[in-house]
Amino acid sequence: MKPNIKPWQLLSISYNDKLQDTLLQQYHAAQFLAIAGRYLIPQQADDSNTSLVFLPEKQELASQELQTDNRLVLNLSDFSLGFLKKDTLVPHEISLQGKSKSEVYDILVQILNKEGINTGNLKNKLHYDLLDHELLHGAAFKKNDTQFIQEHIGYRHNAQLILEQIAGEYPKAERVRVWPHHFDTGSIIPVRFDDQGEITQSMGIGWAIPDSMINEPYFYLSFWAAKPSILPENMPALTSGKWMIPEWNGGVLRLSEILRQSSPEGQYASVRSFFTSGLLILEQHLNP
After folding, report:
1. Measured CA distances, 185 to 61, 134, 194, 227, 264 (Å)
2. pLDDT grade for 2, boundaries at 50, 70 and 90
């Protein structure tokens, strides 16, 4: 399932409470895909069975395959869950509007059973804590204004576009995934391995929703080592974005900085420059 990604989508809205609620509504909806991956797919050491795939041409998040070519999907545009069977959506969509998480789960179980998937081991819980929201306390899902939904789709589209390009320049890079726990889109680029072939150093690239470090969406790049290694504070400056050392072993490019560019070409160039300059600096640091 190779996505067909069109050019960069212009981002235009400064991060605000409406965008935050839209992200959180869709974050909690995406957990149903993670639940399916957790209990209906064999557990992987890196938990990738719970990871998601963004399908730009469909504006959907998809689970990993539950059966051959069969996936559970979340349509971001119309805010519904569905079952994708060999790239064709079967007529069992669940509109999330006005339903609580428990109500959606009960309908989801019925749909999966109709599709011949054994749900005996399925549970309505995950192995990590979810971001707090009224949805965790019985509130119903609500579809926010189209402009905020489309802005989130733009986030996902652009992240998939740039990250697949960057990862494609490194033969050993992992595939770009959406990780439901933090709802980030990212990839890992292995740098060094031990004698057993295990990764001992890697660089991370991705896009993240706001967290305790950054209060708005942002692109990131980072360095990891099996033997803890903190990057020096005098790292050369990035051409866009900034290093977060020593608070964090990496750098970030905030949404607010991207929005200073008023054209798709300018925004793309800013993000591309962030990754190109940052990864080069990291590689030079690791391989003097």
Report:
1. 11, 24, 27, 25, 20
2. very low
Higher pLDDT residue, 199 or 27? Answer: 27
Residues in CB range of 278: below 8 A, 6 or more apart? 221, 238, 241, 251
Helix (H, G, I), strand (E, B) or coil at 74: strand
The larger pLDDT score, comparing residue 232 to residue 244, is at 244
pTM above 0.85, yes or no: yes
Backbone torsions φ then ψ of 71, nearest 5 degrees: -140, 150
The full DSSP string for 30-43 is HHHHHHHHHHHS--
**Average pLDDT of span 245-261:** 96
Sheet holding 218-225, edge to edge: 177-179, 184-193, 199-208, 218-225, 250-254, 242-243
Positive or negative, the Cα torsion across 9, 217, 231, 194?
negative
* Residue located via tokens 């360095």: 223
Q: Where are the beta strands (DSSP E) in 19-85?
A: 53-55, 60-62, 70-75, 80-85
Residue 271 — pLDDT band, cuts 50, 70, 90?
very high
How many CA atoms are closer than 13 Å to the CA of 287, on its beta-carbon side? 7
Across the chain, how many H-helices and E-strands are there? 5, 11
Q: Determine contact, residues 50/162, Cβ cutoff 8 Å.
A: no
